[in-house]
Write a structure and sequence with these properties.
449 residues; alpha/beta; FAD/NAD(P)-binding domain; 3 domains; globular
Length: 449
């Protein structure tokens, strides 16, 4: 039982210089010379495994060859033809388990081509150019489509529909577009307001209008959209945070990790965001890592990530886990939370039971550990708020919407994609592909069906 002390939660733990250093770009962009050298290492493989590993099927050898030839605009066009959010995906995709893991350079006891950084180099060059818009709209089709949600799936869907000549209205509850890209990623991954600059680039094609402050309210909302529009795309995301179901969960100092991350992203000055002296993050995914690392960067003295299973089943990639450890976060596995302890209405610690596998089932070993904590972040996953889908007639599987490969649901003229769609991997790049494919399916059915 740790000694109880008053909670130490406050902002301004560090100097202005420290904050600036800590929240600078986590992966600085390549300069022109570095990009040229890396692009020339590429073997430009025929039937390239890196392209196959990309959920959006970017022609990786082709765009890298264009960089080597000094044609950054052509490289960016190749990327954005397949992935209109190629700039953000270059920053946040787990390339180490996708395209770069598939790079044939790995088989030659060599380091893989830094595909993500090269992709960013090309797209950033286009965005900074005098004429960043490289796409034009097709002739108007006269069709109007509603897109619910302005996250990666919704934005990709809207952009492709607009390119094909359709009119699109995006409905979103938040004040800013972007969804996860704007509210759910660590600040150091997307500096310089890149999420909003990318959204503006997407909108500049024309034919897309965003209605902010609109919240999907279930069957009535869907019925209204189906009446007023020719088709509907649902990119609802996963808005409901999983509860721990533990004693003490309602104590002050206990927060959802996603709310903490969003607060940091929207803060004009990260120095104004308070953080505890001792922080415990419960969970094992990328959200847990983002919350834990940023807690440390804000000046927390001790930060623990505690996960109930083994390291091999953690949702955070090996690279993300290493990132956490290099920033002083302590990782623990095989420990299940039992109780959030408190005093005077505030969290003071978390008690965990050590676990092991017995015949494939998690069983307590009888050993318990308690970590002091004046802040506790819950990061055990999010889920679709399926209560809002009651009465819509949509078929659900494990709480998510069942669709075809092209995103069509069981309801006529209704498609879905992104994290709310059953069977996905909850990756930004996969959500983009969902939106793109759904748009093509919708356009074909509405205009050529």
């Amino acid at each position: 039982m740790p000694e109880t002390s008053p909670p130490d939660i406050r902002a301004g733990r560090l100097s202005a210089a420290q904050y600036a250093q800590h929240f600078a770009d986590a992966t600085p962009p390549l300069n022109a010379s570095q990009a040229m050298l890396e692009s020339e290492r590429c073997l430009y493989c025929f039937d390239a495994p890196c392209q196959t590993a990309c959920p959006t099927d970017i022609d990786v050898p082709s765009f890298i060859k264009r960089i080597a030839d000094g044609n950054l605009r052509g490289a960016a066009r190749t990327i954005l033809e397949s992935n209109p959010l190629g700039g953000m995906c270059a920053r946040v995709c787990p390339t180490e388990v996708l395209c770069e893991q598939a790079c044939v350079r790995n088989t030659q006891t060599d380091t893989p081509i830094p595909i993500g950084r090269l992709q960013r180099h090309a797209v950033d060059a286009l965005m900074a150019s005098p004429q960043p818009q490289i796409f034009t709209r097709a002739a108007p089709t006269g069709k109007r489509i509603a897109v619910v949600g302005s996250g990666p799936a919704g934005l990709a869907c809207a952009h492709r529909l607009a390119r094909l000549g359709n009119e699109v209205v995006i409905f979103d509850a938040q004040a800013k577009a972007g969804g996860l890209n704007e509210y759910g990623l660590a600040t150091y991954k997307t500096v310089d307001e890149f999420a909003q600059r990318e959204v503006q680039w997407l909108l500049d094609i024309g034919g897309i209008r965003i209605q902010h402050g609109w919240r999907f309210a279930g069957a009535a909302s869907l019925d209204k959209l189906q009446t007023e529009f020719d088709a509907v795309f649902l990119g609802l995301g996963l808005s409901k945070v999983q509860a721990l179901g533990l004693p003490g969960e309602d104590l002050a100092g206990v927060r959802n990790a996603v709310d903490f991350i969003a607060e940091l992203r929207q803060a004009e000055d990260v120095a104004t965001v308070p953080i505890g002296h001792h922080v415990v993050v419960i969970g094992g995914g990328m959200t847990a890592v983002d919350a834990a690392v940023q807690a440390k960067l804000l000046g927390a003295k001790v930060v623990h990530i505690v996960y109930r299973k083994g390291v091999e089943t953690m949702g955070a990639s090996a690279a993300e886990q290493e990132w956490a450890q290099t920033h002083g976060v302590v990782l623990h596995q095989w420990m299940a939370p039992v109780e959030i302890m408190g005093a005077a209405g505030h969290a003071t610690g978390v008690r965990f039971a050590q676990q092991t596998l017995v015949d494939g089932q998690l069983q307590p070993t009888g050993r318990e550990l308690t970590f002091p904590a004046d802040m506790v972040f819950k990061a055990i996953g999010q889920k679709l708020d399926d209560t809002v889908l009651l009465g819509t007639g949509l078929v659900l599987q494990s709480g998510r919407i069942v669709t075809t490969e092209d995103g069509a649901t069981n309801l006529a003229k209704v498609w879905a994609g992104g994290d709310c769609r059953a069977g996905g991997r909850d990756l930004t790049v996969e959500a983009v592909e969902h939106g793109k494919r759904a748009a093509e399916s919708m356009h074909k059915e509405l205009n050529h069906g």
